[in-house]
Design goal:
This protein is an all-alpha fold. It has a domain at 6-78: 434 Repressor (Amino-terminal Domain), CATH 1.10.260.40. It is built from six helices and no strands. The protein has helices at 6-16, 21-28, 32-40, 49-63, 67-78, 100-136. Helix 1 (6-16) packs across helix 3 (32-40) and helix 4 crosses helix 5. The termini are far apart.
Length: 156
C-alpha cells in the first residue's frame, strides 16, 4: 500500500509522465470531471461501483501502471466509505401506455372511411354508369358473322 493518498499518487504518476487530463480523457473516453474527481478523491462525484474500478483500470493502462495494484489501492482507500446511494422509486402499478399510435391509426381509419363515403356519395352514380357502359359495349370478336353485302341493283 502506498504511503500517499490514492488521488495524490495517481496525479503524481500522471504528472511524472507529462500527460494532461485532457489527453487521458481523449484516449480513455472518460470525462475530465471524473478524472479530476479521482485525483481529488471526491468519491461522491463518481458514478460508483464497477464504473470507478473501470475508470481506474483504464487510466492505469494508459499510464503504464499495474491495473490490479491501483484498483487494490483504491479499494483500500474507499473501504470505509458508504456505498453508492440507492434511490428507491415508487413502482407504478401499471405501465403507462403510449396512446399516440392507436389514436393515430384510428384517426387515419376514420379519414379513409370518410373519404370513401364522400367519393361514393358524390361520384358513385358516374362511376357505375361508366362501368355499365363498358360492360354493354360488345367487344369485336372473330366468330361474329360478316356484315351482309349490299344487294345488286339497290341504290345507296
Amino acid at each position: 500500500m502506498a504511503s500517499t493518498p490514492f488521488g495524490e499518487h495517481l496525479k503524481r504518476e500522471r504528472e511524472m509522465r507529462g500527460v494532461t487530463l485532457e489527453e487521458i480523457s481523449a484516449a480513455t473516453r472518460i470525462s475530465t470531471r471524473f478524472l479530476e474527481a479521482l485525483e481529488n478523491e471526491h468519491w461522491e462525484e463518481l458514478p460508483g461501483g464497477v464504473f470507478n474500478r473501470g475508470f481506474i483500470r483504464s487510466v492505469a493502462r494508459f499510464l503504464g501502471l499495474d491495473e490490479d495494484a491501483l484498483v487494490a489501492e483504491y479499494a483500500l482507500e474507499t473501504k470505509n466509505r458508504p456505498g453508492p446511494r440507492i434511490i428507491e422509486l415508487d413502482t407504478p402499478s401499471a405501465m403507462p401506455r403510449n396512446w399516440r399510435p392507436p389514436i393515430a391509426a384510428a384517426v387515419a381509419l376514420i379519414l379513409i372511411l370518410f373519404g370513401a363515403w364522400f367519393v361514393y356519395s358524390h361520384f358513385g352514380s358516374r362511376i357505375a354508369a361508366g362501368l355499365h357502359r363498358r360492360s354493354n359495349v360488345p367487344a369485336p370478336s372473330s366468330t361474329s358473322p360478316p356484315a351482309p353485302a349490299p344487294e345488286p341493283g339497290a341504290s345507296h
